[in-house]
């Protein structure tokens, strides 16, 4: 026998905004941190991918700002935990390979792929929530961010394969 689950629409909206805040905060934090590694990379394809990621993240943040406006909500950038903590941990690990450009590049690829995978999962859940709260335009904006995160992850995996094939 199936259980009936009754989630209040207002509760879903609050939940949606709270978690959008977390993703927005992580995107803002990532924009601050990416320049640290942009010109440290050894493999030119990776440098281009990071530069492209910066442009994509800026666009994703603009879409999220539009979502806040559509929902009549204010951005509340969260604490340095969760997704932003993942970013900081990743960038600290990358620094441990400062003296080895090849391992630094592999570390960048590894962590950028993980960051994108987390963003993909976050955008998937937000998209499902947007369906439940019946906000079609918001669902579309989240889907665009989701598709870009998927494309970025695929690009990082492609570059990793190409990078390893030159070893």
From TrEMBL:
Pfam families: DUF892 (PF05974). This is DUF892 family protein. It comes from Taibaiella lutea.
